[in-house]
Amino acid sequence: MPDSRALRAQFDDLGQQREAAALGMWVLLATEVLFFGALFTGYTVYRLAFHDAFVAGSGHLNVVLGTANTAVLITSSLTMALADVASRSGSRRAVIGFLAATAVLGSAFLAIKGLEYAQEYREGLVPLNSLVFSYSGPDAERVQMFFNFYFAMTGWHSLHLLIGIGLLIVFIVLAWRGRDRVRLEGNVRAGALYWHFVDIVWLFLFPVLYLVR
Amino acid sequence: MSGAMPLDDAVQILPAQASSVAADVDALFYAILAACVIVCLILFVLIWRFSLKYWHSRDADREAHEPQGFRLEFAWTVIPLLVFIGFFVWGARLYLKIEVPPPDALQVHALARQWMWKFEHPGGQREINTLHVPLGRPVTVTLISQDVIHSFFVPAFRIKQDVLPNRYTRIWFEAIEPGRFRLFCAEFCGTSHAGMRGEVIVMPPAEYQAWLASSAPAESLVARGQRMFRSAGCSGCHDPRSTVHAPDLHGIFGRTVQLRGGATAVADEAYLRDSMLLPDSRVTAGFAPLMPSFAGQLDEGEITAIIAYIKSLDAGDSE
Amino acid sequence: MNAGPDYLHEGHSLRSWLLSTDHKRVAWLYLLSVTAFFFVGGTAAALMRLELVTPAGDLLAADTYNEMFSLHGIVMVWFFLIPAVPAVLGNFLLPLMIGARDLAFPRLNLLSWYIFAVGGLFTVITIVAGGVDTGWTFYTPYSSMFSNSNVVLAIVGVFVTGFSSILTGLNFIVSVHKLRAPGMRWFRLPLFVWSLYATSLILVLATPVLAMTLMLVALERLFGIGVFDPALGGDPLLFQHLFWFYSHPAVYVMILPGMGVVSEIIPCFARREIFGYSVMAYSLLAIAMIGFLVWGHHMFVSGQSVYAGMVFGLLSFLVAVPSAIKVFNWVATLYRGSISFETPMLYALGFIGLFSMGGLTGLVLASMAVDVHVHDTYFVVAHFHYIMVGGMVMAFIGGIHFWWPKISGRLYPEFLGRLSAILIFFGFNLTFFPQYIMGYLGMPRRYHEYPPEFQIYHLLSSAGAATLAVGYLFPLCYLAWSMFRGPLAGANPWHATGLEWQTGSPPPAHNFATTPQVTRQPYAYDPTRSREDRA
Predict the structure, then answer these.
(1) What is the ipTM of this complex?
(2) Could you tell me if C467 and C426 are in contact, meaning their C-beta atoms sit under 8 angstroms apart?
(3) pLDDT tens digits for C23-44?
(4) Which residues of C touch B36 (CB under 8 A)?
(5) For residue A2, what pLDDT band results from cuts at 50, 70 and 90?
(6) What's the maximum distance between 2 C-alpha atoms anywhere in chain C?
């Protein structure tokens, strides 16, 4: 056995352990699809019913920032993929570097998202209890419904991104402290699957929310 | 009266059959019940017999099964499937009959709220937790809730329909037996859900007419609607002589309306109600979205009256 | 090779139990917690049955009664029925049955229990803070805008517990795929493992939809982000669709593992291979899959379109077919067997009877025209209690008895076991059969006071509930006694053929001294030989 610490007692060999970890992550992602699926279903139902109001609401989103965020997130998927490659073949430093780059890009996404939220807050488009939703155009109730979905969906997505960044930081610390290669590789692979998933969810959210016509 | 609501402690096994569909529903129920009993009996007899015959300390032939597994499995897959499909078709046809009201039915409006039922008859008669209906004539009740979901349930009629906020639902029945029958709220609606009960009083037509006359109010539902139509300010724009450009409502009910953006809508109760509360959502083609929302200004009862008035406007007249 | 001490003697400190990643010890954590919740939910039921003895609402205030049935539903569904068989028996047995040393992710498994405990804690806080009154169904707009009770706390409890279900399901799926012992092909898996696999698919794919939906209700209450708010055009039917998309499959989570348990018990006490093994396995998967497509049958009178109702009605009849197949196969297994009636067998036969009566009355509910009448009446209450209690609880207690020698290494008093099985069977029928009759008479559910003509049925039902309560207390007492004082069982007291019986009772920490090699079907029983002369 190459490294007795890396192999957990319930597995026979590292291959089996790796396959189990990958399958576990895929099952988790299947769960996540259904999490977002519930939101997308609700959104689709209302979007079909209140088409005009949803187009009007979508018109108030900042497409420039949204597009910038899309670019940021796609780039972060690239650096994540590079970290995955580096964990298998490259140096520990490269792994740490790419993980850090991914975490920075993820944080940039959240920062831009925060900027957008702030802008929407100033325009009175945030439908929170205490803050009066002050949209003045026609059909304000159903435009508010659009914004309810917008905040629920992007908020839930941002939470996922936040968890992803947390995971990356944990991996960086582990790599820094000299975690053995086999386990680090498994961690980074599972983390990469998760990260790409969160990225793909955004690639659905962006057109559905920002580009409604 | 056999259909009377039992107010004594007499033990009932089966509910009264007091509507035109009750016997049909019971027939289907008994048929399924008979199938259930037969299957259960077969199962229990088999378990009983096998248990005795193959009890471990008894001598019995325990050699391996004949290879008939497939035939048996096939039989007890296909036979239940066919029986089930039979029940489905029977139930589906009856369901359509129960759900789709006949066109000539008497129209009654019901408003449900925590925790009471309010009814309004076309003649303007209003009652709370009691609904008088004539014997032998289909009655359609249009239901709406002012708050949470309720459910209109008359066991003796075998009918039930959820009552939703912000959406009209409809239920119909034809009482075939005079008497007083229990009305329940069947969807949990809060503290006094169990107290949200009432009764449906079925009267022979002559008595019913007498009741209508004796409880006739000063104005009918349509007249009240007309009064509301003026006092709420609807007539200021929707009157054909008005200077404001708003759709003429004469003969609009039931017509297909062209909407802005190319879609169409049938001007039914739901559409008219939406137009008062959410006027911007489905604007008639050729008109500007000028109408203010009346949400919070008109209650459900007033909306019902105004809709009744709009329904009464024929295409022909223009006052 | 020495397997070392059994798992019960691997350490005696509290820490060695609370931080153990051994699936067998985690199963114990679940066993103790779901048992506690069972008695919490049972107490609520007892108070309801007491209130309903008289037609007037004289014992409990209306709000208290509403909190009791909500508490009963929430606790029994999410904190007893869903975790009971999978997280207790499944956790204990799945690795043993597939010949593995543990689940694929043992630490995740322990984490699942802690998540479950946190969810349970929120539920207990909900109770202490004054309860919740929405029913377990949380229908909007009542739950989102009108209820004055602790809806958000209750939702958080259910939401958190959902993650525990998801992680358990994930662990089971990966373990079945990746950790089977050499020679353990898919069609050599015991049916209990098949049932856990089907259950796990549902847990993983349905639970997130519920979690999201309830989260949206909580968001609406907390922050006014109201996607179900009727004033904004929100549709209460959307909530119902999303809720039942989870909750109908969840009904199968509450019965499939029970079917698996019965499929283990019956061959063992009939000394006969299960009839139609592969049909049994496929029908489990079929139920799990068709179960995802029938949610709309909870909404026949909700205002959904008549034609949507018909599609859901047809599919609901179809999902009954694989269940019927299973019942026929169990009965056919008895044919030419060598049958004996130990306690687990009594529970299994009771399961067949009660499940059949519950399942068959499901046909009444699937035929839309009759459902219009019986929807939301005691007929429905009786139907699902026949499945949930008559089915799942019978299977759970039967399974606990069957595998008790494996879990504890000890025997329980057989006479008391049989006595309580019979008591529970009769108590159950007395409680719930009258509810079918009063349901068809029109008695609506969730009523804390009712018209007097229903009283006779409520009285019978309450008398049955008292019997049932006594029946449930028996096993609690004698199993606790047996755990410490019961006679030693030996490795395989039932002479069963499953892999879990091919190791010590209780099993050693890593289950098997050497990795087993599987060479045959799981039910290699021979009815022509005496039991001791085992196959």
Answers:
(1) 0.90
(2) yes
(3) 999 999 999 999 999 999 999 9
(4) 357, 360-361, 363-364
(5) very low
(6) 73
